Amino acid sequence: MVSHLCGKIRVFIHKLTQKEEIPMSQTWKEAHLSLQVCMKKEIEAMREMLANLYKEELSFLMCDAESLPSILEERAILVARLSEIRLSRIEAIKMLEQFSQCTLSEEASSLENLLPLDDENTLETLSLRDQIISLVERMNHQNARNALLCANPPASLSNRLAMSPASVAPKAKLRVTTCPKKAEFDKS
């Protein structure tokens, strides 16, 4: 781990101490911006997918089997769209690899190694990558939760609670009180 970190530091120092600065071509900048656009579209599609997963959870919790087919149809469309966006992101990364000395298939390389440290768009691209990773984790968590709800539907849970009335707390009664208007109060 330490040797890997030292290697990265050596590469960083080497890049900083190079006297000959190679200007980035316009094509590289276009590829970088294309990657950012693809990542933003992917984040948007992933948010829609997460919202769809939340809808599925609500349909399970409310025992609403009627809305489930439409939710799953919507998800199928979202999955297809997300797949297309990811393919375009992979193509944008391949275009960036053509301008870089390393490729993402190399051991211990990542998007950080592909992007120059002194470029203004690198930070935004890495931030977009972190958002994608976070959304993937949230989607996996929600998908696992939905699978658990599907395996153990809430109806069976409510049936179990109905069997033991001592575990169910009585519902509080709601009372609404209306007060007379101030003018009516003063007349009396």
Features:
188 residues; mainly alpha; elongated; disordered N terminus
What can you tell me about this protein's structure?
This protein is mainly α and 188 residues long. The protein has a domain at 25-153: FlgN-like (Methane Monooxygenase Hydroxylase, Chain G, domain 1). Helices cover 71% and strands 0% of the residues. It has seven helices and no strands. α2 runs antiparallel to α3. The termini are far apart. Mean pLDDT is 74; it is low at 1-23, 160-168 and 173-179.
Quickly count the helices.
7
Please, what is the average pLDDT? 74
Q: How far apart lie the N and C ends?
A: 85 Å
Secondary-structure-derived class: mainly alpha
Shape: elongated
Helix content: over 70%
Poorly predicted tracts of residues: 1-23, 160-168, 173-179
β-strand number: 0
CATH C-level label of the domain at 25-153? Mainly Alpha
Judging by the overall fold, what is the CATH architecture of the domain at 25-153?
Up-down Bundle
Radius of gyration: 28 Å
The fourth-level CATH homologous superfamily of the domain at 25-153 is FlgN-like
The CATH topology of the domain at 25-153 comes to: Methane Monooxygenase Hydroxylase, Chain G, domain 1
Q: Hey, roughly how much beta strand do the residues contain?
A: under 5%
Main sheet: strands, sense, barrel: none
Order of helices and strands: HHHHHHH
